[in-house]
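Archive maintenance. Older records in this collection stored only the sequence; we are now back-filling the structure field for every entry so that each record is complete. The fields below show one back-filled record exactly as it appears after the update. Entries are processed alphabetically, and Dolichyl-phosphate-mannose-protein mannosyltransferase is next in the queue.

ARCHIVE ENTRY
Title: Dolichyl-phosphate-mannose-protein mannosyltransferase
Organism field: Cognatilysobacter xinjiangensis
Length field: 667
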Amino acid sequence: MPRVQTPTLSTTPGVPLQRRLVEAGLLACAAGLVIHRTWVELPAGRFGESLALALLWLGLAWVLRRVRAMRMADAMAIVGLLALVAMAGPLPVLATVLLAAGAMAIGSLFVCDAALAFVVGAGVVAGVVGWLLPLPVHRAWLYAPLLLALVFARRRVLADMARTSLAEWHASVHASPRVAAAGMLALGLASAGAWLPTMQYDDLAYHLGLPWQLLRNGRYALDTSMQAWALAPWAGDVLQGIAQVLARAEARGPLDTAWLLASAALVARIAGRLGAPVEFRWMAVALLATLPPVTALLGGMQTELPAMAAMLALLALATRDEPRGLLAVGVLAGFLGGLKAMHPLAAIGLVAIAVARTARGRGVVTPLLAVALALGIAASSYATAWRICGNPVLPLFNDVFLSRCFAPTAFNDARWQALPGLPLPWSMTFLTGRHLEAFDGGLGMLLIALAGAAFAALFDRRTRWPAVAGLLAVVLPMTVIAYARYVVPGIVVMLPVVVATLVRLYTRRTALVMLAALCVLDLAYQANANWMLHTGAIKRAVGALGRDAPLFDRYVPERSLIDAIRRRWPDARVLDLGDASHAELAGNGLTTTWYAPVLHADALAADQDATGAVWARLLQAREVDFVLLRAKDATPARRAGLARAGAHRAMTAGPVECWRLARDASE
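Back-filled structure field:
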């Protein structure tokens, strides 16, 4: 294996200016930490826990290396796989492997790279299944044979991909074993976010609904009466639903890990094509893994995680030739649209440079087919929302579409507004809590620290257009809403670009020190990315040895009560009068929050009657069997209504009471 050569510094006259740009970004980051006293927000205890987990990981990998005589990076990968199986369960992991293999089988029809094939194939699967959601066909006995048939049909191609990927892995680890071990350790620490059970608010109120309906009912009800977002873009939830149906249990953690691994492979691949030697490809992986929002995204079902992989896949297509690359671009563009309407806007530059690379000499038919693929894969949710409610982006822009399914107003979340006098990248970095459900510093420092390197990338022919596309992916979402999570895919897209730029401008040692320092800084603020990480949820998940119940009892006791109800009374209707933790009830959950406009209005009217008579009639009319109630939501009218309805307190979990109505006398 040839030795890794230290890159020769460029002799271009603009190099001093480019270095000043890079250093200005680093100095601005240091200044911001001081000016805003962001160092006060450093979660020292959680950082210590991350370091302890890193030592544990190193210790287990060292033992494995001694026993099996393998390289440290290999041992760390095995420890990570075993940890995921232990924390998430073997069936969810196997279900995800089957789904990923089937996706790669489809993706291999378009591209030759394994990570690319997974992302492209997943887009096709999500697009096709999205059109079939209302049909009662979503069963494991159908999914599993179809996926196995795809894998069998493409077995030789998949075997070739596996051999190539394994050879590339061995070569990259052999070329830089120490940095590879550091990159794998960072990746392992990030993957710990996938060990957490699903507990984030949007997941409990919305995202879990589709997977649980597919598992329980074999179809999706397309019902906006209890969830205004029920017809919103659903590609991410469709893939979660397939994995859940196959596993017969939630499989969010393993599928999120698959997105992380695909993104890491693509970041390394792109960095290499932009001129970064092997050790810096591993540093690009480490930058990705230590970016605080990445670990937070691994703990939930938000679309930015698959969108991150899809945008990297577009950039990868712009840096290599693939047999059907233009069709793959169409699939990825459609997949991004199927995930969220924001993502195609952010990816417009990436789509443009990918099309410019892949459309050469393709005539007319292939581009038209690519456009048809994009529309077909993206359109299922929009077409369904238009057909049922007359608004393709319900509940957005309903002041224009005037759908009967939602109030005729312009939906706007007033929490996320730009701060007067501060550039958005600056305030998102140092005042993150104003732009995300997080703590200051929770977006990481790269948006400012590497801003200079991003602009320096514009000076070099190889990185110029990837840098333009990446900058657009960061800036365009900011023009729509000052919400920090939407810029995360753009930040990730910029990582291989800035790494290649630092390699070009600095000596090997200087560039490695810069990147390593940024990795440590971001790792220190990792726990500020959301409330679960900030309160030590990963430590508690490790202590619970993969059991969800202790974490549910502590963080979301509603899930403990819902699980108990579902086991004993699987068809019971449950009204959550608190935080809308009803999505997993698969159509049997009710909420009085704004997500359910009609019931929300009925609840407001019932609260005006102190006797509780209106509440009692409402509970009877909605055929409610159980009511979940916290003290803050227990108004006198609601208490009186429960009493009139003959309800009794059946069980409690922490601060949450579960009341059973007398109308259901069966056991």
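Update note: The beta strands are 574-576, 589-591, 626-630, 648-653, 656-660. The first strand starts at residue 574 and ends at 576.
Entry marked complete.
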